[in-house]
Amino acid sequence: MLDQTAKPLVEVSDLKMYFPIYSGVLRRHTGDVKAVDGVSFNILEGETLGLVGESGCGKSTVGRALLRLYEPTAGSVVIGGEDIATLAPEALRKKRPSMQMVFQDPQASLNPRMTVAGIISEPLVEHTDWTAERRLERVLELMDAVGLNRRFANRFPHEFSGGQRQRIGIARALALNPKFIVCDEPIAALDVSIQAQVVNLLEDLQERLGLTYLFISHDLSMVRHIADRVAVMYLGRIAELSPRDALFANPLHPYAEALLSAVNEPDPNRARRERIILQGDVPSPANPPKGCNFCTRCPKAFARCHQEKPELVEVQPGRQVACFLYEENTAVGSTASVEATELNQQGETK
Amino acid sequence: MPDGAMHVLDVKGLKTVFRTRGGEVHAVNSVSFHLKRGELLGVVGESGSGKSVTMMSLIGLLPSPPAEIREGQVLLGERDLLKISADDLRDVRGAKVGFVFQDPMTSLNPVFNVGFQIMEPLRRHMGMSKPQARARAVELLELVGIPDAANRLNNYPHQFSGGMRQRVMIAIALACDPDVLIADEPTTALDVTIQAQILELVKELRQKLGMAIIWITHDLGVIAAIADRVMVMYGGQIVEQAPVNDLFANPQHPYTRALLKTIPSMSGAREARLQVIEGQPPIITAAPVACSFRARCAHAFARCEAENPLRRAVAGGAVDQNHDVACHWTAEARDA
Questions:
Q1: For residue A275, which residues of chain B lie inside 8 Å, CB to CB?
Q2: Does residue B128 sit within a domain?
Q3: Which has the closest alpha carbon to B190: A56, A307, A40?
Q4: Does residue B109 form part of some domain?
Q5: What pLDDT score was predicted for residue B3?
Q6: CATH code where residue B65 lies
Q7: What are residue A52's DSSP bridge partners?
Q8: Which domain holds residue B60?
Q9: Which of B9, B80, B272, B305 has the most CB atoms lying inside 10 A of its own CB?
Q10: What is the pLDDT of residues A43-56, one digit of tens each?
């Protein structure tokens, strides 16, 4: 599927996205919601990177900041050799055709007063000087590509079902021949039997058009199906970034382990096994804990986790983890290493 | 659960119709099922399959018009809930039958603190005094695992997280010790790790309190984790019913089989392509005279077009006792 020589198409380094909090009568800047707090990763050409995590972990914010739908607070996002985060407005506009987005809610992301043809051709009106005939030709071609009947070109979004609406959203994203598409929970609003249709369509299009995807989702079994590599986010930071098979076979970060363990499989024998139940809720990103963001709920946390934030480092070939358990193991003569190893083993024998 | 155990709830031939400007929509079509004491019955189906409407019909939660319950019996103990007066029904709701909804934010009243909302059914149905109700409310919050219960009673719903709010909803539903708890997608709006906490809580509560539960969901994974018995609904009908292990090990209806295959697995070999069920779920505008799944079914044949299949026992059991399915595609038809 992926060849070894593939170059990174998207390179994100130390991306931060803070939303300011103003309070008091003077509306003074009193803090920040650190939605994304120092995230780095690459996406190779033709690859699908899965981005998973629970609500509020910042996964959608990463997707939006990547396309500069938000102005990132810090960091760089290099797509095809240009830094999106600092590009001047006109240059950014020129760049837009190569990067597109498919949104979660196909109901809310399609203008109810526009026809399907109008919706799909809007990017063409904006970014090309094509004639109306040529645009219509392209619209019909796109409708064929996503499996929508051409005869429906003059209908309105409310006349379609959820799955069909998502196809309209995908056709619009494809209109300008993008290289990179951010899919933000594209199947979350759809019924199970329709989800598979949309995921198969996304995979077919990727194969045919050589697309690169960032696939944001909270559905881990679907991510296992579609992604080549997977990044697990927790409270604005990446906990683990691993190839798909390695992650699902043996998650390294304690959060990734708990998250995978919480998934209910449609098989009574597997679904009723002992699982890791995390205590408590996710802390507020406006007031993250001191030390590791996961230390308040981590079953394996030790003293150092409450003091310092672990960085995302490569601990096995191709696998990056932000956790002291693994850092300590490799450090020579560290006092905490014995304890860490023990903890680690306990985790594995459970 | 012994087989002859008493049925807490018996539903027979329930038909619910919505009258809309575009004509009638037959949302529930002759649904019959029972609920045994202490049992957890899972109800699965996609949106529009009639699973929620069925359960809301039972206790008169559907606005009428447009909803109209045409036929059927809902026996809770000796009483037929479809025959009793609105006042009597109000006494049943909350006291005998508890309800937990999908979205805890919209089903809790934002302008009253949670203490008031937990005490309300206690005072109305159980005739408790304020201090009695308050003491019971603290007990209930502790039961559902909310720390610092006595102080939390004074908090408003927005001061709780999603998972905690759903715990409050469960506390309200359990307040009067109901015989039946109906939970409509109670974990769908929650994150997986929080969902795992709530499922664990429900397992615990069942052991402590032993009430019967109807759990509505579209998530077969949740069903696999907690249900004793499962009903699969499609087009307003029960198309398959079985003990949970039977259903997953030996699914009979083509819809159940397809549904299980569309979900990518978390372990084992990764499928190259997902199985799909082509087409859309139907909108039933008249009492069904043919199988409602036929248009999407890989095995449909002439008889499916001519006759709506009735539920028949699978492998010897009696209908509604063990494993039954509503499908013409029998073992004989498969071989032919």
A1: 196
A2: no
A3: A56
A4: no
A5: 45
A6: 3.40.50.300
A7: A217, A232
A8: 3-96+176-264+282-335
A9: B9
A10: 999 999 999 998 88
Residue in this structure with the two tokens 């996964």, named with its chain if needed: A59
Model pTM score? 0.84
Distance separating alpha carbons of residues A127 and B104, to the nearest angstrom:
44
Q: What is the number of structural domains in chain B?
A: 1
Residue B65 preceded by cis peptide, ω within 30:
yes
Exposure on the CB side of residue B291, measured as CA atoms within 13 A: 25
CA atoms of A300 and A288, how far apart (whole Å):
19
**Higher pLDDT residue, B247 or B273?**
B247
**Closest residue, chain A, to B48 (C-alpha):** A191
Terminal CA-CA length for chain A:
35
Task: Give the pair of three-digit tokens for residue B88.
Answer: 């009597």
A327 by DSSP, 3-state: which? helix
Whether residue B132 is contained in a domain is answered as: no
**Using CA atoms, how far apart are residues A180 and A202, in angstroms rounded to an integer?**
12
pLDDT at B79 over 70: yes
- Residue A7 has, within 13 A of its CA and on its CB side, a CA count of 5
- Tell whether the torsion through CA atoms of B48, B49, B52 and B57 is positive or negative: positive
Which comes out higher in pLDDT, residue B173 or A106? B173
Please report residues of B whose CB lies closer than 8 A to that of A266. 220-221, 223-224, 248, 260, 263
ipTM value greater than 0.85 = no
Residue B207 lies in a domain: yes
Contact A224/B275, CB-based, under 8 Å?
no
